[in-house]
Amino acid sequence: MSRENSLVSAQWAEDNIDTPGVVIIEVDEDTTAYDKGHIKGAIKLDWTTDLQDQVRRDFVNKEQFEALLSSRGVSNDDTVVLYGGNNNWFAAYAYWYFKLYGHQDVKLIDGGRKKWELDSRELTDELPERPTTTYVAQEQDRTIRAFRDDVVAAIGTQNLVDVRSPDEYAGRLLAPAHLPQEQSQRAGHIPTSVNVPWSKNANDDGTFKSDADLQALYEEVGFDESKDTIALCRIGERSSLTWFVLQEILGKKNVKNYDGSWTEYGSLVGVPIALGDEPGDA
Amino acid sequence: MCGAKVGGLSVEGINTTKEAVIQGQVLRGTGDDATPVAGAYVRLLDKSGEFTAEVPTSATGHFRFFAGDGQWTLRTLAPKADPVDRVVQAQTGSVAEVQISI
User: Fold this and answer.
1) φ and ψ at A113, to 5 degrees?
2) The dihedral of CA A269, A275, A280, A281: what is its sign?
3) Does any CB of chain B come closer than 8 Å to the CB of residue A189?
4) What is residue B26's three-state secondary structure?
5) 8 A C-beta contact, residue A8 and residue A81
6) What region holds the Rhodanese domain (chain A) (predicted)?
7) For residue A85, what is the enclosing H or E element?
8) Could you report the per-residue pLDDT of A55-84, keeping only the tens digit for each?
9) Domains in chain A, start-ordered, CATH in brackets?
10) Are the C-beta atoms of A237 and A30 separated by less than 8 Å?
11) Per the CB < 8 Å rule, is B79 touching A172?
12) Which domains does chain B have, with CATH numbers?
């Protein structure tokens, strides 16, 4: 993969709002953001209700994903163009999710909703109408999704990239600081994981840094090109953005996103945890 | 602004004894002519300048963070304005109110 195949500019998105075969989709942490205004023609996916199983902690299954996209009028051969707030955290999560179910042509709008707003580009509250389709998903691509046993096995043997803020990594905060801190799980990080906050991938306006800057960022923390990689954060959305950088922009091989992330790992019984700013030992 | 509470956002429903709240309002201009800025982006930087969180302001220009004890910087980005940095101290059990003019 490369930047050209996976990322489009806000200008490209604006120029292609009416292009047949292009479906713009907003996915936000704040699931009401779309309703207050969105890119013309864009549809909404709600990550809490559309993309999560409503009973178990897991994603919707293949059949549910097919039914979802069919009802929203998305076809297999459409170019899916994702954007969202919070510097594209949840749009990147949706990008990874679409790839998990085998959608071929997916792109992220560089800078997401923030860049769009800071550019003073138009938002509308008009709801688009799209005829239903018959969407067919693939089985989940497990080569890009890590589970807890994969993560425990990776301690000391793979690149573990924890993308939370330094205070969350060190155990001084339990959640991003726009959320209440009362949580049941333990604080800290997985021993041997390095801390590369997701924000180091992005400029202030939410766009990604240059390939050279991104490459240097991971070299600085001793990223080992010969090893497989797992990215994690708190619930798997910020780490989707880092997964996107590592695999889709920089083209690194065998990168997985751990969507269980700290809310799962920090609640497991008997696993090792490191506190403080250093990775710690295996 | 209709419904806006003098002194900042209501903290009803928040256990302020356990949280180090930083909250406030973004305004364009100063004094009596100041107007709330909806959809500005306020980011919370830790003492090393590293990004910790970011929120868009509400329709009334308000924002809120749940930080930890210590010194933080609020960096505000808005259309047609230069970024503004403000240093703030947070402490568990208290609410730090910050008014930001762009």
Assistant:
1) -65, -35
2) negative
3) no
4) strand
5) yes
6) 18-125, 154-274
7) helix A85-100
8) 999 999 999 999 999 999 999 999 999 999
9) 3-140 (3.40.250.10), 143-265 (3.40.250.10)
10) no
11) no
12) 20-101 (2.60.40.10)
User: What predicted TM-score, i.e. pTM, was given to this entire model?
Assistant: 0.88
**A85 and chain B in contact, CB less than 8 A:** yes
The single residue listed with the structure tokens 């549910």 is A64
- Sequence-distant (6+) residues with CB within 8 A of A211 are A3, A249, A250
Residue B2 has pLDDT above 50, yes or no: no
B50 in A contact zone (CB under 8 Å): yes
Q: Which residues of A touch B91 (CB under 8 A)?
A: none
Catalytic, A211? Answer: no
The per-residue pLDDT for range A10-62, each reduced to its tens digit, is 999 999 999 999 999 999 988 888 998 999 999 999 999 999 999 999 999 99
Can you spell out the DSSP letters for A213-270? HHHHHHHHTT--TTS-EEEE-SSSSHHHHHHIIIIIIS--SSEEEESSHHHHHTT-SS
Nearest residue of B to residue A121 by CA position? B79
DSSP symbol at A55:
S
Please give the Cα distance from A81 to A83 (Å, whole number).
7
Give the chain A residue nearest B44 (alpha carbons).
Answer: A177
Q: Tens of pLDDT along A81-114?
A: 999 988 899 999 999 999 999 999 999 999 999 9
Which residue type does A142 have? Answer: R
CA distance A9 to B96: 38
Write phi, then psi, for A160 (nearest 5 degrees): -105, 120
